[in-house]
């Protein structure tokens, strides 16, 4: 009786390690493709749409920034009697039509237009940066889901195996071929794995909600299984990636344009202390005399430059310094992030390969050896369970490493444009 039960137990173990493990690698027909997810996010993400609208608004500010002030047309009914306002017989009565136009000091409007144009270009670059980072965020959520799906597959196989072990050890205990400790340990492992599966399923719900939010969809929309490609990609050197990022990252272009905008703005406010010219043309009609024309010229007097123009100049100089510092910080952060991401991707790829080629085969061989030894009573039941749980942990960790690799590569692509 004990031998047949042991044979049943061994068959359950071998079944769990065999075809079920292989079928977990396949993709179901209703798989959500990464390219489709990114395309949906770029078309529907509300935050990206807000940034795009802001860029359009910035483009519309260029024209007004360089436009002349509106001319002013005035109509005057002058020197009328208060007692008879409509009478025009008095020689001093006069009707006047006056047109006034302010002419800003040369360079003010040109620099203001140039500053607005640089800000608009920076807004367009910000839109591209937002789109790229959105793609990286979609990849992050997508591959989190992929790792969770594979982990759930491993956990489900493990749970089936532990349930089989529980049945076997219970039957063996009932005939005196096993000890109660083996039964209790199997029950504990079943309960723990059931709890792990429940926790992972809820984490997948949360991850799917995050992905749906990035895609501009309702959080409750069902997300089918997702892809998890192998880590067979070789990365360029760190120096080449840094060069690509410095040349192609939109955030750096945006920072450069904001520095140029601040420089143009500073050039404009430096001219604020110079007077603006006002030109006026007036036509007067008097009942008892010939019509008259008047030409007027006026200038602004910067009497309060210490309270207005000079603080504006210092403010814009500080804005320029801030833009330059932010650009330098973005450059430094870009270099550091590219190097960090490449190192992370290399680590994840190498570890995933190590797990697949050496660690997992050795761990599975240990389980096979433990099964053979358990059949002849040379190792305890707990050793067999521990070996199998170690294999499962290595499998889950392998999937996590593969997902981390693709996440790092996705962010690298966002910062460099496209990896060669």
In short:
The chain is of the alpha+beta class and 420 residues long. The chain has 11 helices and 4 strands.
Report on the architecture of this protein:
The structure is a single chain. This protein has helices at residues 2-17, 19-23, 34-44, 46-60, 62-65, 108-174, 180-214, 238-248, 250-270, 309-375, 381-416; strands spanning 72-78, 94-103, 277-285, 292-299. It is 69% helix and 8% strand. It is α+β, with helices and mostly antiparallel strands and 420 residues long. The two termini are 64 Å apart. It has a single domain (2-69, 116-274, 309-416), classed as Outer membrane efflux proteins (OEP).
Straight-line distance between termini = 64 Å
CATH superfamily: Outer membrane efflux proteins (OEP)
CATH topology: Outer membrane efflux proteins (OEP)
Gyration radius (Cα, Å) is: 38 Å
Structural class: alpha+beta
How many helices? The count is 11
Relative strand content: 5-15%
Helix-strand topology string: HHHHHEEHHHHEEHH
Question: Which key features would you list for this structure?
Answer:
alpha+beta; 8% strand; Outer membrane efflux proteins (OEP); 420 residues; single chain; 4-stranded antiparallel β-sheet; 11 helices
Secondary structure topology:
Layout: H1 2-17, H2 19-23, H3 34-44, H4 46-60, H5 62-65, E1 72-78, E2 94-103, H6 108-174, H7 180-214, H8 238-248, H9 250-270, E3 277-285, E4 292-299, H10 309-375, H11 381-416
Antiparallel strand pairs: 1-2, 2-3, 3-4
Helix pairs in contact: 1-6, 1-10, 3-6, 4-6, 6-7, 6-9, 6-11, 8-10, 9-10, 10-11
């Amino acid at each position: 009786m004990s031998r047949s039960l042991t044979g049943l137990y061994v068959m359950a173990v071998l079944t769990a390690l065999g075809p079920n493990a292989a079928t977990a690698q396949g993709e179901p027909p209703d798989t959500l493709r990464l390219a489709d997810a990114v395309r949906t996010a770029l078309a529907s993400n509300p935050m990206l749409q807000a940034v795009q609208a802001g860029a359009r608004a910035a483009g519309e500010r260029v024209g007004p920034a360089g436009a002349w002030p509106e001319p002013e047309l005035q109509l005057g009914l002058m020197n009328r009697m208060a007692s008879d306002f409509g009478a025009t017989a008095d020689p001093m009565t006069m009707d006047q039509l006056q047109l006034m136009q302010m002419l800003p000091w040369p360079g003010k409007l040109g620099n203001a237009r140039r500053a607005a144009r640089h800000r608009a270009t920076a807004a367009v670059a910000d839109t591209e940066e937002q789109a790229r980072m959105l793609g990286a965020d979609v990849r992050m959520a997508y591959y989190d889901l992929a790792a969770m799906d594979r982990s759930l597959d491993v956990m489900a196989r493990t749970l089936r195996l532990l349930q089989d072990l529980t049945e076997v050890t219970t039957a063996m205990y009932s005939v005196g071929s096993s000890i109660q400790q083996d039964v209790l340990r199997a029950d504990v492992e079943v309960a723990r794995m059931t709890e792990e599966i429940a926790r992972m399923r809820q984490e997948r719900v949360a991850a799917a909600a995050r992905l749906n939010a990035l895609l501009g969809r309702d959080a409750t929309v069902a997300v089918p299984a997702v892809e998890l490609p192998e880590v067979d990609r070789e990365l360029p050197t760190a120096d080449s990636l840094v060069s690509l990022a410095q040349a192609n990252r939109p955030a750096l272009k945006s920072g450069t344009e904001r520095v140029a905008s601040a420089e143009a703005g500073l050039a404009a406010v430096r001219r604020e202390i110079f007077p603006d010219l006002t030109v006026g043309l007036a036509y007067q009609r008097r009942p008892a005399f010939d019509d008259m024309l008047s030409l007027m010229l006026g200038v602004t007097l910067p009497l309060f430059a210490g309270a207005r123009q000079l603080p504006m100049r210092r403010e814009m100089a500080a804005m320029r310094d801030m833009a330059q510092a932010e650009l330098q910080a973005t450059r430094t952060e870009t270099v550091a992030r590219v190097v960090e991401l490449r190192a992370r991707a290399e680590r994840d790829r190498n570890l995933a390969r190590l797990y697949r080629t050496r660690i997992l085969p050795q761990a599975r061989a240990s389980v096979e050896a433990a099964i053979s030894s358990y059949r002849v009573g040379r190792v305890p039941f707990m050793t067999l369970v521990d070996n199998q749980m170690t294999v499962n942990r290595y499998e889950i960790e392998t999937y996590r490493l593969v997902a981390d690799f693709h996440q790092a590569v996705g962010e690298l692509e966002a910062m460099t444009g496209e990896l060669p």
